[in-house]
Design brief:
By secondary structure, this protein is of the alpha/beta class. It folds into two domains: 2-147 and 290-339, Medium-chain alcohol dehydrogenases, catalytic domain (Quinone Oxidoreductase, Chain A, domain 1); 159-286, Rossmann fold, CATH 3.40.50.720. Helices cover 28% and strands 25% of the residues. The chain contains eleven helices and 15 strands. The chain has helices spanning 41-45, 104-107, 139-142, 145-157, 174-185, 197-205, 220-227, 242-251, 275-279, 292-305, 320-329, and strands spanning 2-6, 15-19, 29-38, 68-76, 88-91, 122-126, 130-132, 166-170, 189-194, 210-213, 233-238, 252-260, 283-286, 311-316, 335-339. The structure holds NADP nicotinamide-adenine-dinucleotide phosphate (NAP). NADP nicotinamide-adenine-dinucleotide phosphate is lined by residues 40-42, 147-148, 151, 170-175, 193-196, 199, 214, 239-240, 243-244, 261-265, 287-289, 330. This is Alcohol dehydrogenase.
């Protein structure tokens, strides 16, 4: 079968299409005929030798990339009870994180990081590492869910988001756009930033209440405060990392929450002052994707609220490298998908 390997830490040249033997189905496994995949910012780092070197999710090449994909079950092991042939499924990001609190062992089960990912025509996963995808979704739509959507879902639900509260999203990538859509479904007020007025206009069409161009307004936290009568927001979806954290902290209301998710600004050595966390009595919560229980709860909410993922562009399997390059360009709004 056709698959992709990351062959070394040498950038996109390390992304090679390979022929691999068909995977073998164990008694508790399902064999998935993969139909679509999606890219996450994390995947851009993997061909360059990893993702800021979290040892627990590091695996030496060659490895199959990507955490996110969806397909049809075409064979099941003798002891499988959760799925049958013909079911439409996606893998969960941490194969061993079913529910409860995340542990070190579970961090070591990240698809396309600690263990082989799903960018192959057929993939074997334990039945415990899969979820059914929303019935109304195409495989392409479902392929956008395992990392970005579950991350956005955990960020909003962990703090118990209430209708009428205000959420701030940074940028218009995969996590932020899912967070915007979920926050609207919760009845929250939403503020979103972007480098592009065109993307902000798109975000408004999706229901964003306040939009801020962070290029035009480098001190965007002042705009956030102005839009909230000087109070600040209840939850910041913090995907920027060290380069935006101080402004995110300034944007949060007293006793509010900063959901610490990403590293888009690079700059891991920058040290924002922790004092405002204390003075504002903030909860700064690290978010690491989510569990299978969270994924399933999110899918129920998606179905009831008829939330449809925003796919910016779709590439063929043989155009995988072009998909990575497009993702790297930052031109996208929402998700970039690969399809068979
Ligand atoms: N902790 C976790 O479990 C977890 C899970 C998923 C993702 N992440 C992290 O979250 C981040 C976002 O991931 P993603 O997959 O959603 O990325 P993505 O789709 O590639 O998002 C890229 C977008 O982020 C925006 N951006 C870039 N620099 C920015 C800045 N300085 N300020 C505000 N926005 C900025 C840009 O939006 P505009 O073009 O609109 O300016 C850019 O298009 C990444 O760092 C990723 O590693 C973490």
């Amino acid at each position: 079968m056709k698959a992709f390997h990351i062959t070394g830490p040498t950038g996109l040249d390390a992304l090679q299409q390979v022929d691999l033997p068909e995977p073998i189905v164990g008694p508790r496994d399902v064999l998935i005929d993969m139909k679509a995949w999606s890219l996450n910012y994390r995947d851009l780092g993997m061909p360059h030798g990893g993702y800021y070197r979290n040892d627990k999710v590091k695996r030496d090449p060659p490895m199959i990339p990507l955490s996110d994909g969806a397909g049809e079950v075409v064979a099941v092991g003798d002891e499988v009870t959760r799925f049958q042939v013909g079911d439409r499924v996606a893998g969960i990001f941490f194969q061993d994180w079913i529910g409860g609190e995340l542990t070190d062992q579970q961090i070591g089960s990240a698809l396309g990081g600690a263990i082989d990912g799903v960018l192959a025509e057929r993939v074997v996963l334990p039945e415990s590492g899969c979820v059914s995808i929303p019935e109304s979704y195409s495989f392409q739509q479902a392929a956008t869910l395992p990392c970005a959507a579950v991350t956005a879902w955990q960020s909003l639900t962990l703090g118990g988001l209430q209708a009428g509260q205000c959420v701030l999203m940074l940028g218009t990538g995969g996590v932020s756009i899912f967070a915007l859509q979920f926050a609207k479904a919760f009845g929250a007020r939403t503020i979103i930033t972007s480098s592009s007025d065109e993307k902000l206009e798109h975000a408004r069409r999706l229901g964003a209440d306040v939009t801020i161009n962070y290029r035009e307004h480098p001190d965007w936290q002042e705009k956030v405060l102005a839009a909230t009568d000087g109070v600040g927001v209840d939850n910041v979806i913090e995907v920027g990392g060290a380069g935006t954290l101080e402004k995110s902290i300034a944007s949060a209301k007293t006793s509010g929450r900063v959901s610490l998710i990403g590293v888009l600004t690079g700059q891991p050595d920058q040290n924002p002052s922790p004092m405002m966390v204390l003075f504002k009595r903030l909860t700064v919560q690290g978010i690491y994707v989510g569990s299978r229980d969270m994924f399933e709860a999110m899918n129920r909410a998606i179905t009831v609220n008829q939330i449809v993922p925003i796919i910016d562009r779709s590439f063929g399997f043989d155009e995988t490298r072009a998909a990575y390059e497009y993702m790297r360009s930052g031109a996208h709004f929402g998700k970039v998908v690969i399809t068979r």
